[in-house]
Amino acid sequence: MTWTVMPTYDEYETAHEEFSWDLPDEYNPAVDFLRKHEDTSRTALRYDHPDGGLETYSFDDLDERSDRLAAALADLGVTAGDRVGVVVPQKPQNPLTHLANWKLGAVSVPLTVLFGRDALQYRLADSEATAVVVDPSVRETIDEIREECPALEHVIELGDADSVTGEAHAFDELVAAYEPGIDVYDATPETPTAIMYTSGSTGPPKGVRHSHALWLGRAAAAYNYFDQGLAEGEATLWTPADWAWGAALGGTLFAAWHHGCTIVGWPRDGFDPQEVYDLLERHDVTKAFMPPTALRMLMGVDDPEARFDLSLETFASAGEPLTSEVVEWVDATFDDVAINEFYGQTELNLVVGNSETWFDTRPGSMGKPFPGYEVAVLDPETHERKERGETGELAIKPGDRRVFFDEYHGLPEKTANKQIDDISARGESEEQRSSGRWFLTDDLVKRDEDGYLWFVSRADDVILTSGYRVGPMEVEDAILTHDAVEQVGVVGVPDETRGEAIKAFVKPARDEYDPDALREEIRTLVRDRLAEYEYPQHIAFVETLPTTTTGKIQRRSLRERDDAD
């Protein structure tokens, strides 16, 4: 019982030619993550408590506790197919709930504690969750929305009988009241596993229903973007990203456990770079998934390799394209530490990326398609293939349909619109032509002559100005090279002459600055780095920028803000 879907390959071309998905007939992720390893007494989770102290959990510990919780949930009436919300930060109770759900055949709904009232209400009601496990920090909000979630029967709050009051069950009491030894649900790769909600960066959040094959797909991707360095018992992983986010949950936490490695849990309200380096040193973290924003904040600490005894081998990053300055900083600051950007979607797994084992990282590039996937760059309207170097919509075809999403919950038309059965093959030879089901990403990219993919923008974020198509990410990348800029979001705004003008919302990196001088410096910088037509005609300085819970700039909100000005 190995269920290791990604073997080691020395050459990228060999991996693409030889790899094929070989999913098992029977598969339950709770068994995969906890029971298949040679030594299940090894540490699976190191929980660095916010109030101090360290808790360690072996694979056996997690197996026993999730058994107990599964028995408790079953006694509350949770059965196969029921949805159970999980609103818990990086605490042991988060994965324990997922594992318990799958032991029952129930479906997890990962949610972040960063969500406010409306966001939680919408997702719990839309998913028809019958139970929800919550952190104390969101209990009051859950009580407010409970009547607006008709299917919600049980609220389980972290804590014991002394701390949990009102109409909620105490998590600790439930676990203590039941014995391990539950019969694990007979599952397959097709068994429903989770409903994950899109970030809402381009419209109302959609519930993305996945099956258990999702976790094998993400574990395979992690093996690649962590440079095939996830040998059993030899790697320790950490991410600052919330475990409700798919790349953190499946591509870091559960990928670690699939490969028999250790994960560090460290819930924090903010991100202090000094404390992060302390954590990386304290736990000998070797593999870190770090969103670009976090990496930029780490750049503010001088000479970290000299100041901290680090065991780092690989940074993996996703969520937005890495700027060249971050890649260059990692190369100049750390000895033998790789930085691998990767790309995925809530719906489509983690499908494109870099791996320094296989090829050199090109700063700003998404990388190349991982083994097990084909990619094509298509005309967004006709779905004809674009030539190398031309901008088009990224389409992806998996070698096994099951590693992608099953459906948008309750949205069959949107599910159908996400995929097409065929693409035309203009510009490709007969042997390169491929038919079958392709999935559309709504992301505009270019593919260069060496096969690297380059992100341009979301399809609906493209700015049409004076006849030119401008991707906001490229302008943002240029502006971020200015040392007086901490963060920026770029959108198109109506303009009588140009059709659209480019507007940048800039968060300055320091409190004191000359706004007129900085505006001119930014415009000159963009003109010099990109093109005359790509400079921002309008620049607004702001204290904060609207982001999704995964840290992405919400350009839709910026456009709405501009309309209100």
TrEMBL record:
Residues 41-397 form the AMP-dependent synthetase/ligase domain. Residues 474-552 form the AMP-binding enzyme C-terminal domain. It holds the Pfam family AMP-binding. It comes from the Archaea. It comes from Natrinema hispanicum. Belongs to the ATP-dependent AMP-binding enzyme family. The keyword Ligase applies. This is Acetyl-CoA synthetase.
